[in-house]
Write a structure and sequence with these properties.
The protein is of the alpha+beta class. The chain has five helices and ten strands, in the order H-E-E-E-E-E-E-H-E-E-H-H-H-E-E. The protein binds flavin mononucleotide (FMN).
Amino acid sequence: MTVLRAASDPASGRTLSGDQDIAGLSRVENYATVYLIGNEDDPEQIVLPIRGQGLWGLMRGFLAVEGDGNTIVSITYYEHSETPGLGAEVNNPRWQAQWEGKKIYDEEGDLSPEIHLTKGGASDEYEVDALSGATLTSNGVTNMLQFWLSEEAFGPYLARFRSGTEPEDAEETDTNFEDVEGGLIMADVNAKAF
Ligand SMILES: Cc1cc2nc3c(=O)[nH]c(=O)nc-3n(C[C@H](O)[C@H](O)[C@H](O)COP(=O)(O)O)c2cc1C
């Protein structure tokens, strides 16, 4: 089953409330395929599928995170409808290069992502330059990262890898995941509601 079908099926997805739906998804699947590179128990990289609305339509891609569950390796989009030279600059290697080493969460140890795009020059490890002339696409990128890295999605899963970090309510937000063939992990992206 495709991810979008899983999200739309009542048995395998759920509706997001207006407050939750900052990425413009309407519905989200309960399980996602996460790719672990290296040792499964102590991976070098955790590759997460992400998606959200850009200016012209749904953007789909991957975010690669180091095994610490907090340091970004790279971001890439394999599907989008943004304009060449504007929003489509998400796949410009010079813009993508900024992401390496950026941090998702601060030292507080909670599940609220700090990473975001900013106009006028990134000034710390939680900031990446917005795409010039493409504020609306940039807002879409920020919003989808804020959603997928939050408590509503991969936040509890990534917390497992972050040393000294426990989800606020470990029992409620504990993430179920299981091995499937080929070293893929099916991570529960909706640990809270079930
Ligand atoms: C034909 C056309 C295509 C556009 N494509 C995009 C786009 O892909 N992404 C985007 O954010 N803005 C796009 N814009 C510009 C937006 O309408 C808006 O002006 C822009 O996002 C503002 O960004 P800025 O504040 O960085 O100038 C496009 C505008 C036009 C006329």
